[in-house]
Amino acid sequence: MAVLAPSSAAEKDKMQFWDKQQRGANIFNEEISGDDIRIAKEYGIAFIRLAPDKFISEARDFLIGDADNYQGLVPKDLRKLKGILDMFHEEKMPVLVTVLSLPGSRWRQNNNGKDDLRIWRDKKFQNQAAMFWQDLSREISSHPAVVGFNILNEPHPEKLYSQGNLNKTEVQSMLFDFYDLVIGSIREADKNIPIILDSSAYADPGAFQQLREHKDKKVLYSFHMYEPYAYTNRKLNDGKFQYPGLVNGIYWDYTALKNYMSDVLAFQKANRISNNRILVGEFGGHRMSKGLPGYFEDLTEFFNENGWHYAFYAFREDTWDGMDYELGDGRMPWSYWQALERGDKPVVDRNPDTPSFKAILDSMKKP
Q1: Per the confidence metrics, is the pTM higher than 0.90?
Q2: How far from 58 is each of 75, 101, 162, 265, CA to CA, in Å?
Q3: Is residue 345 part of a domain?
């Protein structure tokens, strides 16, 4: 009993982490340095939502081995992940672990730009995904840096009924049944680790209309906020839109943002879900979007008003500059792109006082 007590206390503390509002950042990088973690801590970032899928692996898919047929965790990849988690722990930075790929659901960017929907068509892949999460839970759920598991980043089974195969109700039931399967599998390994569930339709807040409360009380519910997408997306915007302002016929301001997220509040009210069980897993916009500091100020004001946890995307992205807000709102020099073409890590000048990044950091300092 004396041996088991510290472990039990540590597991209990992981849920307590989410009792108080937490404000963090996403890191989906190929490499992570101790310096970046240290600086994130100095900035006041309270946790990192980490996806390890970009980490280099000798296997087809990092950690999973092969999303076509999961046979167990890749030992070498697991050692690498544990080493990264050790770095986070050394800096006392909590980590929420998520994944972009699961068996039968390979991340689009690792799948020739195509959606992989096999996990929703074939129960075999759902069972493999449940086993993957159980295996991973046995290995890292007790790691002192880990404060939760986010089962799958931005699920989008809606793609099935857009193909005429299923209706909306059937797809939502499929997602809930999948979550129930995975949660049960994780709980065989760890009874207490917090589990985060993204809403469907790429974690859209509107999908909270169909989201169901899970019976497990150590669950948080998450959505991502990039609306209006024609504004936050560089290619769609192309200098046409600004915030606040008209975007495709709708005037977007604080009130419009609040209305877009109203289904989350309705879900909370209907199911008596407390504010500290809601996570805005990602929010952001292309750094060159006009009015982005004001957009961030309004978003985070609403998050803080409701006491929701949140994590901006992204902190020091290492393969794309679009949402690295420390770079300001100007174009990158040609040397940046040359370095990427050579496969080198570009040397960049970062400034925490850029208006967009400052708006985020200032929000994290509010009581």
Answers
A1: yes
A2: 11, 16, 35, 44
A3: no
Q: In the chain, how many domains are there?
A: 1
| Closest among 240, 148, 236 to 195, alpha carbons compared | 148
Identity of residue 75: P
Give me the helix-helix angle, 123-140 and 75-90, nearest 10°. Answer: 50
- What's the burial of 87, exposed, middle or buried (CB within 10 Å: 0-12/13-18/19+)? middle
Q: Which domain holds residue 160?
A: 4-317+352-364
- Residue 12 is predicted with a pLDDT of 58
**Distance between CA 363 and CA 88 in Å, rounded?**
23
Distance CA(301)–CA(109), nearest Å, equals 33
Regions of the chain where pLDDT drops below 50: 1-10
Nearest-CA neighbor of 110 among 319, 342, 344? Answer: 319
| Residue 106 structure tokens | 């390979």
With respect to residue 148, please indicate whether it lies within any of the assigned structural domains.
yes
CB 106 within 8 A of CB 116: yes
In a domain, 54, yes or no: yes
- Token pair for 329: 């709102």
* Residues 97 and 145: beta-carbon distance below 8 Å: no
Q: What is the pLDDT of residue 165?
A: 67
Whether residue 14 lies inside any domain: the answer is yes
CATH number where 238 lies: 3.20.20.80
φ, ψ of residue 252 in degrees (nearest 5) = -100, 125
